[in-house]
Amino acid sequence: MSSALAQQGSDGAPVAAATLPRDLSPWGMFMQADMIVKAVMIGLAFATLVTCIVCLSKTIELIGARRSVGRALRALAAARNMDQAVRAVRDGPVARLLDGAVAELDLSTDRMDCDGIKARIVSRLQQIEAAAGRRMAFGTGVLATIGATGPFVGLFGTVWGIMNSFIGISKSQTTNLAVVAPGIAEALLATALGLVAAIPAVVIYNLFARQIGSFRALLGEGSSEIARLVGRDLDGGMIAGKPRLAAAE
User: Fold this and answer.
1) CA atoms of 71 and 66, how far apart (whole Å)
2) Tell me, what's the pLDDT at 109?
3) What is the pLDDT of residues 171-206, one digit of tens each?
4) pLDDT tens, 46-57?
5) Distances in Å between the alpha carbon of 215 and those of 32, 38, 202, 229?
6) Is 55 helix (H, G, I), strand (E, B) or coil?
7) For the chain, first and last CA: distance in Å?
8) I want to staple 183 with a disulfide (CB 3.0 to 4.6 A). Which of 130, 163, 165, 208 is the partner?
């Protein structure tokens, strides 16, 4: 009967047998964990929260931007010149492309070569397109960081928990599994949280990378439409809605 409560130590003295904690739920293991392991778990939980926030906000931003670009592309396709395009597209990423093209046309004079004007406008459109892509990608870098570091942070918690388990074995001078089981369970929970934080972050980052690439492709279509409208106006002897004097001569 007493064998369930005590066991003989290496020197023949009875050693109290450790009993497993009643609460082996994730919350119970968290509350019984070492402070370092707790800090690791809290950090990983915060990283998971950040992933959810970035996912929600970036999804809303991408949906709105893609719809705006889609409407603008349809308006550009229906426009016959830059003036009509500027009146049809008032806001959004494509409106910034139009503003850049109009600004370059305003800086141009009627004595300048049309090919040079077109080349400068294309260069300006490429810069605006790249800036829009960078703005859309802002915030996704944290997902890559979480995905890359999450498993290693969880592994650190695992190593620390197992180290404490071995220290418990040394202090109790017993190899009873009940002595090391709580620490090992806490360590494995830290590993699990590391994977929970890392796997969604990697998946969401890859998804956003593809969607941002698609968004930039749509902006490229907008740039091409604007370049065609500009070329049509210039070949027709117009600069920003005004006749080219050189063409008139």
Assistant:
1) 9
2) 72
3) 766 666 666 676 777 778 888 899 999 999 999 999
4) 999 999 999 999
5) 48, 41, 20, 21
6) helix
7) 115
8) 165
